[in-house]
Amino acid sequence: MDSVQAVMTPLEALPSVSPETCLLDAAEALKRSASDAPVPLIVAVRDASGRMLGALGMVDLLRGLNPEYARDGFFDAMKEQGMGQSLVGFFLEEVNLSPQSLEALSDRAAALTVRDLLRPPAREETIDAESTADVAVDLMVLRRRDYLLVVRKGEVLGVVDAAGVFDALMRRAVRCATSTDG
């Protein structure tokens, strides 16, 4: 089985933004990366010297639109597993997380920078560089993640995404199918 490093997108191939980039420009960088397939829909955040500070995906940008999402422990009790509408309504009411107008969200988006959203990657967002692609599949499915940051000794090397892992698995399946055909 291929290693995660063999199927990851190295940091150098990802679009990057600085911590001072505004949220709207970061979103534009994400949209541009979507047209540069097969690059994952994620941007690297680098300081002036080029050192990797973190990475942001679209959900990270959306999370930044409401400060309640950043509160410590906000999602600790939730497993993000198909909560019903009534439970969602109760939860929003309980934590006083009222829906905001598009105008309020737009104003917040214009005022935020990448630095405001940046946080160290959580354990469930990472995979060790020595892991195999099948381990990445397990982690993505069990953790409900579209991508994982590939790390070695705490340093982020790149990103492995579901599409890249799926392609690696399908290439292997094709090799297996053609080798058994005779």
Give the fraction of residues assigned to helices: 40-55%
User: What's the name of the CATH homologous superfamily?
Assistant: CBS-domain
**Count of helical regions:** 8
Specify the biggest β-sheet.
4 strands, mixed
Strand content: 15-25%
In quaternary terms, these chains amount to single chain
Return the average pLDDT rounded to an integer: 77
Shape: globular
Give a count of the beta strands, DSSP E runs of length 2 or more: 7
Unreliable spans are 73-82
What is the element string, with H for helices and E for strands?
Answer: HEEHEEHHHHEHEEH
Q: Examine the secondary-structure arrangement and name the CATH architecture.
A: Roll
Cα(first) to Cα(last) distance is 22 Å
Tell me the Rg in angstroms: 19 Å
Structural class: alpha/beta
- CATH top level class name: Alpha Beta
Strand order of the largest sheet: 1-7-6-5
* Count of discrete domains: 1
Quote the CATH topology: CBS-domain
Description:
With 182 residues, the chain is an alpha/beta fold. The chain has one domain (4-77, 102-180): CBS-domain (Roll), CATH 3.10.580.10. 42% of the residues lie in helices and 17% in strands. It has helices at residues 4-7, 23-35, 58-63, 85-94, 102-111, 114-117, 133-143, 162-180, and strands at 9-10, 16-17, 42-46, 52-57, 126-128, 147-152, 155-161. The chain has a 4-stranded mixed β-sheet. A 3-stranded mixed β-sheet has the order 2-3-4. A hairpin with a 5-residue loop joins strand 3 and strand 4 (52-57). The longest helix is centred in the C-terminal third of the chain and has 19 residues, at 162-180.
